Amino acid sequence: MNRNNYVYRSKLVQPKRIRWKPIFFAILLVLAFPKLLMLFPSSSKDENGPTLTVTQTLDTVKQIQINSSRQAPVLVNEIDEYLLDVVEENLEEDSDSVLERIVRVARGDTLMGILLDAGLARSEAHAAVSALQEIYNPRALRPGHEVVLTFRPAGEDLEEDLFAGLRMQVDVDRNVMVLREDEEVFLAKEEHLELSVQQVAAQGEITSSLYAAAMQAGMPSPLLIQMIRALSYDIDFQRDLHPGDRFEALFEQQVDDQGQAVREGPLLFAKLETSGRALRIYRFTTPDGESDFFNERGQSVRKTLMLTPIDGARLSSGYGMRRHPILGYSRMHRGLDFAAPSGTPIMAAGDGVVTHAGRKGNYGITVEMRHPNDYTTLYAHMSRLASGMTKGKRVKQGQVIGYVGTTGMSTGPHLHYEVHLRGQHVNPAAVNSPPGRTLAGKDLELFKLAVLDVESRYAALAGKVLAGIDDQDAPVQPH
Ligand SMILES: [Zn+2]
């Protein structure tokens, strides 16, 4: 989420040194109007960038917790006119005013440091941080986070600005805050922001790669990765995909009150039409609480071994292999080659134990592993091993074991993947390992209802998308 780009981490101006305090006081009065929140660039600057100050009355704090970070700055001219109008009628509310300073966290900052920089006494800062620790670990602060410090400005009854509390948005749906209760007593509170869920349909035709097609269709990459992973048990992403193949997907997004997608997923449904067959996957949560992808017959897509043990999204035929044809499995070749950019992660095709990790003659840097049911797999020509990859290590299916390279006897970056059954080479595409789980009985009935539901929702949404495209008179794609 991109917000408040105009706010920078800065050394806050010490309240005592503010020379233009009277001007500021007048602005405070103006801004006591509940409906108007104004962000006010201060006239002081330092080497780190502008200091930004927000003022408002206490009774608008709640509103600001949700809105202030996205509020656009108000033009100074507009404020001037407004100021003249309302300055008098707000005189009485002056004692309720608070002053806000927004601090953007920089690398190496601690909350304690930020509070001390803001002029708090050490005991006061410590009390505030301790209170916050009840609900949030301040070490989780990251560069770019924003901390909003609130002060009761100095006035008739106060000699200097009094620290009133702080708040920050620590997740897309969560604010935490600390409020002064008493002299040195602070209380922590949290607030959950409502996110709404929307379903989105995407579809496309593959021209160069699935990755390109999915990006063009507006499918966010975390969801594409979910789709590829779920299909990697059944599809050889190097050889099975062809220009003209089509995909469809239905997924969820969580959007904030500004309509911005802040969380992606999960993928609910995907269909890939390739080589005359259509593969469908459906996300389903069984009554015992397990979520997984199943095919239309209610079989888990998971199998003992993956057919594409690499990020299939970026594979495109011919990549980087001009002199070396992309070989399929044959008596001569006895493995599958996946041409992909150097550094592409390689995954363990199944749960197993590493039996070799390191150089192996013409294979270059290679990992071999043993799986249940007498299968072994081999991954060759890596640029490097994943850290901790040594003989005897247990690995999980999908775990990254190394990265694509061109070590050994190889003419371009690619993964050479072999599967052996009891010592004999087998074609990975012919490995018909049993599905991990097959739904039956009541579970299967529920699953079939869920399938009907998700397909009708996809059809309704995809229909809308198509109608929308027609309305906009989209250019016709040549075939
Ligand atoms: Zn090969």
Descriptive tags:
single chain, 479 residues, alpha+beta, Nuclear Transport Factor 2, Chain: A, Glucose Permease (Domain IIA), 3 domains, 21 strands, 32% strand, elongated, disordered N terminus, disordered C terminus, binds zinc ion
Provide the list of bound ligands, each named once.
zinc ion
Number of H/I helices:
8
User: CATH topology of the largest domain, anyone?
Assistant: Nuclear Transport Factor 2, Chain: A
Low-pLDDT windows of residues: 1-19, 33-95, 318-323, 469-479
Structural class category: alpha+beta
CATH class of the largest domain: Alpha Beta
Strand segment tally: 21
Strand coverage percent:
25-35%
Rg measurement, Å = 30 Å
Helix content: 10-25%
Mean pLDDT across all residues, rounded?
79
Q: Based on CA inertia axes, which overall geometry fits?
A: elongated
